[in-house]
Amino acid sequence: MRPTGVNEGPGCLTVPALIIVVPIRLLWELISLIGRAVGRYVLRPIGWLVYQVLIRPIAWLFRVLVVLPLRWVADTILAPLGRAVYRYLLRPIERGLAWCLAIVLLPFAYAAHWIGRGLVALWRAAWPLLAALGRGIAHVWRLAGIVLFHILVRPVRWVWRTFVRPVLRVLAWAWRVTVLRPARWLRVKVLKPAGAAVRSVFRALGLDTRRP
Fold this sequence. Notes:
Elements: H1 9-204
């Protein structure tokens, strides 16, 4: 016996698919053919007719009624008027302002020029003096440092090394010998044993108040 349910799925799905897809494909091809025909034989002639009958006359009217008159006004009236305004009004104003600025600013320019030259000459004349003064101040400062070193620093250092530091060392040694060592010996040899003995006596008498 042939097993049932084997290789039957594709055959069962092919026929409905063809029934659905083929009419849709044919309808799409028909719509595309109609659209191309309408575009070629209807819309294109209508567009050409609209351009020739409506857009082209409007463009011609706009050029004749607007563009050409504006160009004539610009070339015939505005351009000569602008040249005349610039030649007889703006150019004299420009020249007058230039003369006024020259008259006002020229003295300041000359003054600034001569002041600058004077400052340069003064700097050139004063620079050797300033340089010599700077070198003199440097030598004086160096000499003052040497003098202060020999008058103040070296004596203070000699006094420190010769007297102060040995005295401080002797005082430190005396402090250790007379105070620190006896205090340490008293604490170790006397106070600690005495304290231990007192605590032992208190414990023996039952007077120890420390908690266990």
